[in-house]
Structure formats: C-alpha cells, structure tokens
Design brief:
2 copies of one chain form a homodimer. Chain A has 283 residues and is an alpha/beta fold. Chain A is 45% helix and 20% strand. Chain A has helices at 2-7, 18-26, 30-33, 38-47, 62-71, 87-97, 134-143, 168-178, 181-186, 192-202, 222-237, 241-246, 251-266; strands at residues 52-56, 76-81, 102-106, 119-125, 145-156, 162-164, 210-217, 271-282. In chain A, strands 1, 2, 3, 4, 5, 6, 7 and 8 form an 8-stranded mixed β-sheet that branches. In chain A, helix 7 (134-143) links the parallel strand 4 (119-125) and strand 5. Chain A is globular and about 55 Å long. The first copy, chain A, starts with a helix and ends with a strand. Residues 1-10 of chain A have low confidence and may be disordered. Chain A binds chain B through residues 157, 159-160, 162-165, 191, 193-195, 197-198, 201-202, 207, 212, 214-216, 219-220, 268-269, 271, 273, 275, 277, and chain B through 157, 159-160, 162-165, 191, 193-195, 197-198, 201-202, 207, 212, 214-216, 219-220, 268-269, 271, 273, 275, 277. Chains A, B: Belongs to the methyltransferase superfamily. LaeA methyltransferase family. Chains A, B: It comes from Canariomyces notabilis. Chains A, B: Pfam families: Methyltransf_31.
Chain lengths: 283, 283
C-alpha cells in the first residue's frame, strides 16, 4: 500500500519543479475543496476556540494549512499522510503561509495512531476512492472523533468525469488515468461519489447523523484550467514520464496529451468537471 | 418535431392520473430548477418591477408559475411549449397556485412568435438536450431578448447520470431512456451540459457576457426520491406502458423497473444524480 502511494503523483517533490507544479499541487484549499464544511467549522469554533482537527491522507497539505487558518491560532491541525515523503512538502507549504498551529505525522487511515475521542473534526478529501476498505477507514475516523464532533469527507465520482471539447490528447489522458493499469495498481473505485452515503451507513452511522451535499469540480474558469493544464503537462513531461511509458503510453501519446491539455485550457469554451459528494457525519 | 413531442411524457395528461403523477410533473419549481437565476431576477425586479419573462419549452409549467410568483404581480410571464396539449395543464397548475400574471402560448423555439427585443428574461430548462439545433435556438432566444436583458438556460449532462445502488430495474430504466430507440426518436444529445457554454459562444455571444455555474440534480432526499419513483412507476405502468412495449421493453421489464424504482426510493443509502450546467447570458 505504502509502495503504491510512493508511485503516485503525491511522491513528486513539487518544490524542485517550479511554480507551475507548485500551483498544481497546492491549488486545493479548504475554500475550493471543503467549502461544505466551513460553516460547520465556524459554528464549532464559536463554541470552542480550541478545536482539534485531523486531516487524513492530506498529500501536499494545502487544504490542511487553510483549515488551520480558518480554525484560528487557538485551534490545532494534525496533517497526516501514508507517504512520509510528502510531509516535508506539506510542512514547507504551511510555513510559506505563516501557519503555525499545525503538525505533521505519517499515518494510515486504517490504523490511526491516535487515542479514541481525540479530535473535534476528522476530515479527508479524495481518499476513499483510492483505498481498499472505505467502510473500515470511516469507522477508524469515527473512533478518533470526540462525541459531538464530526467526520467530514468529499469524494469525486470519477466515472462522471467530463472533458469538453474532447480533444484526442485529453481522451488519451482520461483513458490512461481511468482505464489503464495505473488505475488497477492504485486500487480503489471510480464510483466513490455515489457510494459515500452508503459507506457511512455501513460504518454504523444513522441516516439522521449524516448531512449530504453534492457539488462539482472543476469549473470552466480560465485561471483554474491553466493551473491544472500546466501542472499535468510539467509532471507528465517530467518526473512521471518514465512511469507513464511503463504503463503503456508512448512518447507521442505523452506529447499529444501535454499539447492538447494546454490547448484545452486556452480555449474559451472548455470545461472539465466531475460530480462530488460531501458528507458531514455527527458522532 | 411536433409529432415527437406528442409522443413524449409531456403529452400525458397528469390531471387525470392522480396525485402521484401530478407531483411528478409539477415538482420542478424555479426554486429547485432555476435557483441560479433567482438572484438575477430579484436584482432586475428592483430596477424594473414590470419585468417580462418568456419561458420556452415549459412543459407542465410549474417552473413558469413559480417565476410568475417571484417576479411579482406587476411582472408578466409568457409560458410556451411546442406541444399544444400540455398548455391547458400548465394553465390549470398556475390557477391552482392562484397565479394570474401569466399567459400560455404554443411556440417553437426555432421560430418564436415574438418581436425582437420583447422580453427582459428568456428562460429554458432541459430543452437544448432534446432539440436538433441548440445554437439556432439560442440565437432565436437572444433575438426576442431586450438589450440589457438575459437569456438563461440549465441543461443536464445526461451521460453523467448516476443511480445508486444499481438495482437491475434501474439499470434497465437507464438503458431504456438513454440507449434505446426512445432516445433516437427524441433526437438531441446526452451531453448538453458540457456543451452549453460552447453553444452560447457559437451563437455569437462574447465570453464575458456569460456567467456559468454547475450543479447537480437530484439529491438523496427521501421526499424528492419518492416523488420521482412514484411518478415514473405510475406513468410507465399506465399511459406510457404501450410506448414502452413498442420501444423494446417487455411486460416483465416494466414490472421490474416499477418495483425496483420504488424499492430504490425507499432505501436510506440511495442516490440519483446528474451534472447540470447553468448559463446566464447578458444581451
């Protein structure tokens, strides 16, 4: 499992790869990726300014760092990931924002290194679609949540990914990510979004403890599209090129993907979307 | 074209089919189907209480009637559909709400029977996915819009439809609606959502005149699910049964679809979703 994670994009050290890759890995913030949770955080903070928030599978840590800003200096965030190599990057990002109320720790969501009832908020983003047993993971996240606290998760339903216009390089990229050996190596499911509510119920939670909402990601906004396109191109052209060749893409495929992704982002009529499901579970 | 429309569900006279079917055809309101447009309407109404709104392809007219409530008694709504048979139902629905600032007219979106610059707001919901030339339709809608007015449209991307859990009858329903002869007879496209912005640009509008947003439909809310399930079952079991048999479903298929749709709605973990794109175009 740890090996799989090492193979993933999260293992890329974005700090060495310049501004485009840095932006790609850190453009996710609590504001664009966990907006559904912010009103709840604000409410909980009113009642208790010393909130403890655990972010699981946090990758580059940009969502965690913005959570730390939102819950304020009296609150505390623990940012975790299975891959130790990614945590120094998360730490550097938090430092770049001047965020101090945060710590970093290697952790497996199936066996979290924390006592029962340790956190007010336990959060993950795009995690359950990549692991083997989301129900066990949810149970473990609930275990370390204080009574009265919440577990929050947002999962894309990757089968609903839409790319318009369907330029040939983008179709290749979609097939590479979703239909090739890469998806098999990484495990998980492409339909996490639609199953999220069912998983929470299976983890033993009652329906009236769960708040469900739905959203989309990305948008057709020019700035977001360019961050995405430049990031993919730089990573695929650079550190991930060797992997991509091993997983069945040719040199020409990679060039076409990079070229079409940038051309796509530059068009006024282009869109890249995916359905997202969000749950907030009260313990 | 008019013939196709006559074959569609809109031609069902829901007034004869009881409460379940009535609710199915009228559960769409401006609040749940055009929420993206309401702030714009409120703002325009502040400036001009005598707004004129055209609703195109309005079917059972429940969205039109709630628009009439929102723009208020000094405003006026013209509710149109290609199928003359549906308009008495729309009229009856508006009457049931006590809405008086509304009129009803047969109209083809490709050739609207109105002068240039006649309306402040021209709206349609789930129309472009069912017609042959959405760009021409958009041009025609823009023609009858006053300078300074808006054209608003919301289109589902039907290829992203998600049904969970995937009960066998629901899979059959999905295939019947999307992959069978029905879809071919009705024409149109399953990917309207992702193309909506591109169509607007093709109709000659500049990118900075267009506000784009994205949403989902339906939800996992119990009440909505039941309205949907009871409506489908009653219609498919009743007036549309003959059509369904002609289009390749068997008696057993229909029974299974009705049974599984109701079972699906009754489950706590069930979800039915589709990506939606919304645009507001300023003329």
């Amino acid at each position: 499992m740890a090996e799989d994670k090492e193979k993933s994009a999260a293992a890329v050290d974005y700090r060495k790869l310049g501004k485009d890759v840095f932006e790609f890995f850190t453009h996710r913030t609590a504001y664009n990726s966990a907006a559904y949770l912010i009103p709840t955080l604000e409410r909980m903070k009113q009642e208790n300014p010393r909130l403890r928030l655990l972010d699981v599978g946090a990758g580059a840590g940009s969502v965690s760092a913005t959570f730390a800003q939102i819950i304020g200096p009296e609150g505390h965030v623990v940012c975790t990931d299975l891959a130790p190599s990614v945590l120094p990057q998360a730490e550097a990002f938090a430092e770049s924002l001047g965020v101090k109320n945060i710590e970093f720790k290697t952790a497996d969501v199936h066996q979290l290194p924390f006592e029962n009832d340790s956190f007010d908020v336990v959060h993950c983003h795009q995690l359950f679609g990549h692991i083997k047993d989301p129900v066990a993971a949810l149970r473990e996240m609930l275990r370390v949540t204080k009574p009265g606290g919440v577990v929050a998760a947002r999962e894309g339903d990757r089968e609903t990914e839409i790319i318009w216009p369907p330029l040939p390089g983008l179709k290749k990229w979609h097939e590479y990510v979703f239909d090739s050996k890469v998806a098999q190596v990484h495990g998980g499911t492409l339909t996490a979004g639609r199953q999220l509510l069912a998983w929470a119920l299976e983890a033993g939670v009652k329906r009236n403890q769960i708040e469900v909402s739905y959203g989309t990601w990305l948008t057709s906004e020019e700035a977001t599209k360019m961050v995405y396109a430049r990031g993919i191109s730089k990573v695929l052209n650079g550190p991930s090129r060797k992997n991509a060749l091993q997983f069945g893409l040719t040199e020409e495929d990679i060039d076409e993907i990079c070229r079409d992704t940038l051309a796509w982002a530059d068009r006024e009529d282009s869109t890249w979307l995916m359905l997202q499901t969000e749950i907030i579970v009260r313990k």
